[in-house]
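dude i think i finally got it to work??
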Amino acid sequence: QVRLVESGGGLAQAGDSLRLSCAASGRPFSMYNLGWFRQAPGKEREFVATIHYNGVATNYGDSVKGRFTISRDKAKRTVYLQMNSLIIEDTAVYFCAFDTVPYGILARFRGDYWGQGTQVTVSS
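look at this
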């Protein structure tokens, strides 16, 4: 069983920055790929970013490229999402996701476990 707990969401103005955190427990942290997704009201869940178990390779959704950065800290068992230059369209509930395939291929990421989500609201 994997437990994911997100934090760091809140209110921001356009142009501001926020950093989300997701603490993972239940499986060896360094063996698995992790990711962030988001869902805005009335819309489908959207891919934001994923990070390889080695902490180096990353993938980003087109809407966040150049503004968001995903990273992970092995010692803290935490994955982060640094969000810069926020825009109103970034308003959504952000979810952390865990792929249970050990040493998986990042391009084939699948969210097997999900956190409860953290709300990010960006105003003008």
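The radius of gyration is 13 Å.
im so relieved honestly
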